[in-house]
Amino acid sequence: TFKIPEDTRSTFLKCADGIEAAKQQLEQAKPPHQVPRMTAEQFAQASTQLRQLASGAVDGYDYDSDLIGQRMGLGFTNALIWVQEQHR
């Protein structure tokens, strides 16, 4: 772990909060629509990883920042599929 500059920490936390808010909205899908579980799970993982970065916990190989990008990409891909399948 190492000390994260306050402005960077704040940015990470704001992003994590925004991702979490989006996930919560998606989880409120009402019938006949289904909750996009795969999207919500990917967003939750990205949010968790951002919060870990904000605390200064890093793996030292830049793999954690890559994982956040992967989670966001998969989350949005799954969201697009969910929309194409008419929210089912």
How does this model look, in words?
- It is a single chain.
- This protein is mainly alpha-helical.
- Helix content is 69%, strand content 0%.
- The longest helix has 22 residues, at 63-84.
- The chain is elongated.
- The N and C termini lie far apart (42 Å).
- The model has no long low-confidence stretch (mean pLDDT 92).
Overall pLDDT: 92
Q: Name the beta content range.
A: under 5%
Tell how many strands the DSSP assignment holds: 0
Order of SSEs, N→C? HHH
What's the topology here?
Elements: H1 6-26, H2 37-54, H3 63-84
Helix pairs in contact: 1-2, 2-3
Short précis:
With 88 residues, the chain is mainly α. It has helices spanning 6-26, 37-54, 63-84.
Q: What are the main properties of this structure?
A:
88 residues, mainly alpha, 3 helices
